[in-house]
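Changelog excerpt

This revision adds worked examples to the README so contributors can see how folded entries look when concatenated. The first example is reproduced verbatim below.
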Amino acid sequence: MSMPSKYIIHPYKPMPGTNTLVLIIAALVVLIGTNLLFAETITDNKGRKIIFGTPYSRIISLYGAHTENLFFIGCQKQVIGVSVNDTYPKDVHKKIKFSYHDGPEKFIAFKPDLVLIRPMIDNGYPKLVQRLEKSGITVVSLQPGSIDKMYDYWLTLGKLTGHLESAAQMVDDFKQKIKTISALTNKISPKKRVYFEAIHTRMKTFTQNAMPIFALETAGGINVAADAKASRNTNIAIYGKERILSKAARIDVFLAQKGVMNAVTIDQIKKEPGFKVIKAVKSNQIYLIDEDIVSRPVPRLYKGVITIGRLLYPDIFTKAKY
C-alpha cells in the first residue's frame, strides 16, 4: 500500500554552503517525524496516555500475569526483571528479582525503559512510581477486570513490546479453545450449582464478571452467588455466612481457590461452624483449585476451565476431545 504523499519523507538535499548544524537539525526532524508517523498510543488503568515510536526493550514486570504473558508472546529477552513472587514459567528464575518494596535506586540502576505494574501498586506505592517517572522510566499500570478486557490487555502488551502479531494469535487461540469447550458444556443438563470461594475469611466470593466465574460457567457450572456485589471496585465480594447458608440446599459443589490469597484446606471448610447443612459438604463435594489458573488474566485460564470441568463432570470431560 502506498503512503499518502503528505507523509512521504523526501531525501534532504542541502544547498551549497549549508553548515553542519543545519544538517543535524534536518536529520533530527526526519527521525522524529518517522517515529511520530509510526507511533503507538495506549492508555493504562490509571489513565496515563503513553505514546511510543519503538517497542520497549528493557522491561521490569512487577505482576506475575504480566510476566507470564510476556514470556508467552516471546519477550523473554526484553524482560530484564520480574517480581520476587514470580514462579512461572520456569525460566523466570533467571531474571533479576524486584519488589515494589525496593527503593527506586535499585530499579534505576538496571536502566529499564518500561516498568509494568498493576493498580494495587499504583495506589499503594505512589512515591516509587513518581520517582521512576521522574527518572525518565515509562510506568504502565494494567490489570483487566473481565474477559473482554483481558483480550485488549494481551494486545496492549503486544503493542508495548513489538509482539502484536503473537499477542493477537494468543487471543485467537484462546477464543477457539473456549468455543470448543462451550460447545461441549452447553449440552449439559442439569448443570451443577457451585459456590466459588475467593477468600475464606469473611466469606468472600467473586463478582459475576470475574475470571474465576467465567472459568466456572465455561466449564458448565452455575454460580449460586451471582448476586454478589463488588467490594472496593475489585472482583471480590463479601458474601457472608448467612447468605451462603441460605442457599445451602442448592450448593451441589463447594469450590475454593487456593494460594496466597486463600490459604484454606478442605478440612477447614468442612469444620466451619454451620457449614454441615450445605449440600456439597454433606456429600463431600468440596474441591480446591490453584488460584493461578483461575484468577489471573493469562492463557492458563483455559487450564482452569478444564480443571473445573473435570471436577464437575469427570465422565464428560474424560471422554471429550478438546
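The second example, added in the same revision:
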Amino acid sequence: MSDADGARELIRSWLYEPDANREAILEALPDEADDPRALVRSCMLAGHEGREPGVFLGEGFELPHLRERYPDEELSFCVPESYDAAKPTGLLVLLHGGGSDTPRAAARRWMEVHEAGDRFGDVLPGLPCITVAPGNLQLPTHKRWSNPQSDAYVLAVIEEAAFRFNIDPDRVCIAGQSMGGFGAFHIVQTIGDRFASVGCHAGAWYYAFFEGLLGVDFYLMQGAADFVPGERPRFTEAAFARMAHAILSGYHLSHTYAEHDGGHSFTEPPARECFLGFLEHAPNQQRALPAEIATCSHKGAFRLYESPHWWWLSIGRTHYGSVEMDHLEPTEPIASYCTTDFRHYTVRVPAGTVHARNEGGNCLSLQARNIEDLTVWLSREMVDFAQPVRVLVNGEVAFEDTVRPSLRAALQSFDRRRDPGMLFEARIDLTLKPDDWARQTQLWPDEPAPEGGPS
C-alpha cells in the first residue's frame, strides 16, 4: 500500500468510524498536502451509481454510522427525471408540521398528490433539485425541529442525501411548515450557514439573534388569518413573522417577507401559492462565504443552546457577562384561542458575541464581547497564505504571522457541520487575555451583572 493510499484509509476512518482514535489518526497523517480540502473531499463515501428518478417513501439511512445513530428514522425522497448523476444538483429539505404525537410517517405527505392541495407531490418532481422529507425525531415535544438533537439530525439527513446523490453542497435549501416553521426559525439562527436558503411558513419564535443572519437567505411566509378565534389558536400568530420582518428590516438585512391573506394550512389556496413562490425561489440560490458575519455563543428560537460554529468563526469559552437579544412571548403562560396578546422586548442573556469582517489585504477585524477564546478559520479564497495574516480584536492586533494550510485543519473544519462545501485549510486559535476583558468592559461600560445561566 502506498503512503497516499494509507493516508486515504486513515482519513476515511476519521470521517466515518465512530470508535476510531481520532487524535491518533491526526497525528499519523501528514500535516501538509497540496490541496487539503480536495484530499478530504476525495475520501468521502459516495453511492451515486444506479440511483433512479422517482419517489421513494420511508427509506432508512444507508451510511453505516448514520444508520447506527438513527436506526428507526425514515426519509422520503423525490428525484426528478432531470437528475443526472454526473452533474451536481441542489437539495431541498422539507420539515413537516404536527405536534408532540406526530408520527414519523407524516413526512411522506409532502410527496403525495392530494385533491385538497396540501400535498406537493404534483410539484416536487418538476423542481430542478432533489427533495428529501425526513420524519421527525420522536422527542416528547411539539418543538421537535428546534433543538440541538434535531440540528444534528438535519445535518445527518443532508449527509445521507449527498451519499446517495450528487449534491452541490452550496445549493442545499430547507423549509418548514407549522412545527417545521418553528424549526426554521431555530435552524436559521443555529445552522443557517449550512443553507443557500431557509424558508419558514407559519412558524414562531421566542428568542432571536437575527442580526447574525448576514449572508443567509431567509424567506419568511405567513398567513394573515393564521389565528381563527375558537378554531385555530395563536401558537403561530402573524405577530411572530411580522416582528421578525421588522427586526430584520431594522438591521437592514436582505430577506423575503411574503404575507398572504390565507390561514395556516396549505389546503388554503393563498398559503399554497405563497409556498409555491418559495419552491420557485429556492433552487436558484447559491451559498457564498460572506466577508462580514456576526454570531452569538448561545442561540435558539425557544431555548438558548450552545451554538459555537458560524461560517468562518467558532466560539470557545465565554466570559462572565451578558448580551442583549430580541424576545417575543405571549402575555399568558399558556397561549389560548382568543385572549392571548404578544409583547416584544429585549432581554439580557449570559452569552458572548463576535462581529467579524474580512477587510481584505490579509486583515480580519473582530469585535468580541464576553469571549474568552475563539477560532478563526481560513481558506485561500479569504487570504493569501504566502503573506502574513493580521487579526484585530477590538481594535488591537491579536495575531500577525504567516499561517500554513494543513490537512489537520481541513478535517477539523469538516467536523463542525460535516459540510464538504465549507472546508477551511487553516485555523487561528485566539485566547483573549485578562486585560482584553478590561477593553471589552470599556466598550460596554453599563453592562449589568447577569443572573443565572442560559435558559
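Reviewer comment on example two: The longest strand covers residues 167-177. The CA atoms of residues 332 and 340 lie 6 Å apart.
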